[in-house]
């Protein structure tokens, strides 16, 4: 009738790896066990697939990239999407600029998410996997293609000198109506 809950010793302070506040990493980080980030990571952070890994980002920690782990505790800043296949805790100083994919979430007063909160069923989330949720990969490819090739009209507008051609600003068009 009642499920036996697993106890994760998240608050014990025992982490296998520490990125100190005087350290900056550029590139993807793959880990298992526990990872505590006090510094800055520019790249994707992946927990080992199928592991029961715990990622903690402290109030002075920052990640610029996506984060994938079963258990995540954030009190710092993430500029990217967060994928938690088990439980996600957002402490009072947490700031996420991206979408959050979670199974269970706990959010303290003061935590900020500038993106969407997307609940996933148990087992329906990539978590430690590097596979993005369905539809997300296509969305990234489309936005990447748009960023790589601006519309032809944008190029013409940037290359045109003021007073040349027959272009009329939107303000001039609005006032002549």
From TrEMBL:
Renumbered residue ranges of the record's region Disordered: 120-177
InterPro entries the record matches: BacA/B
Name of this protein: Polymer-forming cytoskeletal protein
Family membership noted in the UniProt record: Belongs to the bactofilin family.
Originating organism: Vreelandella halophila
Compositional bias annotation for Polar residues: 165-177
Top-level taxon of origin: Bacteria
